[in-house]
Amino acid sequence: MPSATLAFTRSCSRVTALRDSILVFGASGFVGSALTHALAERDERVIAVSRRPVDLHMKNVEVITSNLSQVEHFLPLLKRSRVVVYAASCSTPGSSADRPMEELQHNLRPLVTMLQALQCHPQTELLYLSSGGSLYSTNPGESAKENSAIQPRSYHGASKVAAEHFIGAWCSQYDGSATILRPSNLYGPGQIVRAGFGIVPACMKKISRGETLSVWGDGSVVRDYLYIDDFIKLCVAVAETPAPVGHRPYNAASGIGISLNTLFDTLQSVTGKFLYRDYDASRAVDAPYIVMDAGSAKEQFGWSAGTSLREGLEKTWAWFNTTQP
């Protein structure tokens, strides 16, 4: 281990607390909330950290509402945790357009601050939720694998790539263990309507109100859609499987490419209602075709997506209607 690394490690206080918790950053988000529930149901002790208040009053769940910004803010939490799940994010490819500094400040800086704190706790394993849809750009008929070329078209995707490299550097210097998951387009119950976040809830809102959906491009772009429960099962499997020293990325996807227009047609069939659309010019941040191969996750964790698009949309529509006045 390099002398600089040794010096920093010696400056860290000794760990005396029992490491029996799973620490979840971004616990109020779509994925973080679902994962916290799933872990709690398995009797895991969870420390749920969120930047905003969140209702996660469950057995074995400790909720912390804080905008952690300094290394010392992370240290006492990491000291109690055997696994940390970093699910915090506040942007999408579209929302990050023209805003590289915001991407740096609000997404990359908090992660790097946590990594500096992890230098004191290299035995705490890291599960980082990256992105697949914003990193790859494949040719029609091809499926991206973890070793496929990374071609981010947005600042959001670029920050995910940078984050993965920072994590790799932490692992190399401090013998850390990290698993990186690159999910495709996630959807399902719990995903609230939020401008620029999630095409499925946006469509359902427009359908329920009889409003018109603005569509970038002609609807021919192809994406891979993954149901939230399937993804959470993979996250749980990763959190409960000891990780070797080093870092490795895994794609999390259905492996099935669906065009936007096909998604719209399926939504109309599921809801029994028409989705009005207004097509506009395409955006530079949107790759025309992204489908991913999740074979490595199946090989390592025995995982594969088990929910069809139609079944997932039916469950999501049923949930969506319970949230409407």
Overview of the molecule:
By secondary structure, the chain is of the alpha/beta class. The strands form 3 sheets. Strands 3-2-1-4-5-6-10 form a 7-stranded parallel beta sheet, with helices on both faces. A 3-stranded mixed beta sheet has the order 7-9-11. It has a two-stranded parallel sheet with strand order 8-12. The chain is built from 10 helices and 12 strands. The protein has helices at residues 3-11, 30-41, 71-79, 100-118, 155-174, 199-209, 228-239, 260-271, 295-301, 309-322; strands at residues 21-25, 45-50, 61-65, 81-86, 125-129, 177-183, 185-187, 212-216, 222-227, 246-252, 257-259, 276-280. α2 (30-41) packs across α7, α4 (100-118) packs parallel to α5 (155-174) and α8 packs across α10. β1 (21-25), α2 and β2 form a beta-alpha-beta unit. Residues 1-11 and 13-17 have low confidence and may be disordered. The radius of gyration is 20 Å and the shape is globular.
Task: Provide the fold topology.
Layout lengths: L2 H9 L9 E5 L4 H12 L3 E6 L10 E5 L5 H9 L1 E6 L13 H19 L6 E5 L25 H20 L2 E7 L1 E3 L11 H11 L2 E5 L5 E6 H12 L6 E7 L4 E3 H12 L4 E5 L14 H7 L7 H14 L3
Parallel strand pairs: 1-2, 1-4, 2-3, 4-5, 5-6, 6-10, 7-9, 8-12
Antiparallel strand pairs: 9-11
